[in-house]
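User: Hello, can you help with two protein structures?

Assistant: Certainly.
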Amino acid sequence: MRISDTNNVTAAHIIEALRAHGVESLVYAIDNDTAAIYATFSTRIVIACPGAYIHSDPSAATFNTDVLYVGTTDEGDPGMIFTPGATIDQITEAFITAGR
């Protein structure tokens, strides 16, 4: 599934896709206006960032796939940076792979 022509995906889309795989996650403001999604796996935490945090509706925070990073909080983890137009399935798979 292609996210959109503008390469933007909302936190709600990512969280919903992760939930479908049994992964709990939340969107959090890592500074005043930058959003990150944290997903909890049995042995590590996986994050996606940066996004544009929306204080009135955190689930509407937007993430641009042109600059989206998904990786663990482990020191030295290079994570994954997506190519423009990444799909929600590719983003979800990156979370699951990093969480293993």
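That covers the first. Now for the second protein you mentioned:
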Amino acid sequence: AVSYFYDLVLITLFSIHQDFWLLKKEILALCIAGFIFLFSYFLPYLQIKIFIIIIGAITGELIVVSAGLAKILAFFRKEKTEGEKIT
């Protein structure tokens, strides 16, 4: 489900020309997920390492999805407000 929302956020942000903003959020999410991946390196058991790696991947996608959805909502609220002022 997170990956599906990621695709929707990606397509929507590209369509409203917010691709550079998305790239900055992707770098932030990659850094946070990378720290989680790095943490898994020091754990003793393989099952726990795999679980932490999965958590890191989901965390990275959740960061981009939640920030992207907030950006999309703000964009459409702004568009709605500007549209009401014109009419």
